[in-house]
Write a structure and sequence with these properties.
Layout: E1 2-6, E2 16-19, E3 29-39, H1 41-48, E4 61-62, E5 67-74, E6 86-89, E7 102-106, E8 110-112, H2 119-124, H3 126-139, E9 147-150, H4 156-167, E10 171-176, H5 181-186, E11 191-194, H6 200-203, E12 207-211, H7 216-225, E13 226-234, H8 241-247, E14 250-253, H9 260-271, E15 279-284, H10 287-298, E16 305-309
Parallel strand pairs: 9-10, 9-12, 10-11, 12-13, 13-14, 15-16
Antiparallel strand pairs: 1-2, 1-4, 3-5, 3-7, 3-16, 5-6, 6-8
Helix pairs in contact: 3-4
Length: 310
């Protein structure tokens, strides 16, 4: 099968097309013929070598951890899926990712893909959507009436976090650049903050939950707007326990745990019209396509999700 691999750490030019064997599946896995995948910051961070201590893989490495496609083969112990099923998943983080024509996926990570959701839309959801869900639902117990602040509301995780918070009945504020104001507000945001014009820490207060997608100074200033007992999940850097304690809030680092059942709940939100993946950019499955997609992701200014059609 064709795959886009890296043979060593480095820049986007390390992404090269290669013919590799189809994955072998275990008894509790399925073989998915991929129709689409997407780009996430973890992809190029691993490519550059920033994550080699946490994810110490042997080369060659196939990057990518969003899968949408059709089941071509099932293991003997697989019970809830069959050949021909449309599925999507956030597979385990291994060296055999989804920049490929086929990927092996554990059954417990799979979700059935409703007919009304395209492969491209589905590929946008797993990593970013599950991250947003785990920040808001699992870590923060978001509830009706909460005031939620989402940093970088126009990003992959951010645009899902806005919609999930609204689906749970929260009031949502979000930061983004002014050029994205119109479509971020269409996602349901109650208070839009153009970070180039306004300082969120001076215009907000009594916030129940801050979804930190930025870290650094933004994370530090976020303590100012949180009410006592508030929650701050971060997806970029572990918050300081002492600082969180001093402000009387719960803060912690969220490292995604893939989960097919939670992915099914996200699919339900899409079918019900409460959430819509935004495909901001789409590239073809080639060396050039992947290299251009990585270059865009590294700017941190991509709108919505970056999709690769396979």
């Amino acid at each position: 099968m064709k795959a886009i691999v890296i043979e060593q750490y480095g820049g986007k030019d390390q992404l090269t097309a290669k013919d590799v064997p189809k994955p072998e599946i275990t008894e509790d896995q399925v073989l998915v013929e991929l129709r689409a995948t997407s780009i996430n910051p973890i992809d190029w961070k691993l490519r550059e070598g920033y994550l080699k201590e946490k994810l110490d893989f042997d080369f060659p490495i196939i990057l990518g951890w969003d899968a949408a496609g059709v089941i071509k083969k099932t293991g003997s112990a697989v019970q809830n899926f069959k050949v021909g099923d449309r599925v999507f998943a956030r597979p385990e983080t291994t060296r055999n990712g989804t920049y490929a024509e086929y990927v092996a996926v554990d059954e417990y990570l799979l979700s059935h893909l409703p007919e009304s959701i395209s492969y491209e839309e589905a590929a946008a959801v797993p990593l970013a959507g599950l991250t947003a869900w785990q920040c808001l639902v699992d870590f923060s117990n978001v509830a009706e009436g909460d005031h939620v602040l989402v940093h970088a509301g126009s990003g992959g995780v951010g645009h899902f976090a806005i919609q999930i918070a609204k689906a749970f009945g929260a009031t949502v504020s979000a930061t983004a650049s002014g050029q994205n104001q119109e479509w971020v507000e269409k996602l349901g945001v109650d208070r839009f903050i153009d970070y180039k014009v306004e300082d969120f820490s001076e215009v907000l207060s009594d916030v129940d939950i801050v979804v930190d997608t930025m870290g650094g100074e933004i994370q530090e200033k976020s303590y100012k707007v949180l009410k006592e007992g508030g929650r701050m999940p971060s997806i970029v850097q572990p918050p300081d326990d002492e600082t969180a304690s001093k402000h009387g809030v719960k803060a912690g680092f969220v490292w995604l745990e893939p989960d097919g059942d939670k992915l099914s709940k996200l699919a339900d939100l899409i079918v019900e019209g409460k959430m819509q993946p935004t495909i901001g950019h789409q590239f073809n499955f080639s060396e050039q396509g992947l290299q251009e997609a990585h270059e865009l992701s590294e700017t941190h200014h991509a709108k919505g999700k970056i999709i690769i059609s396979i």
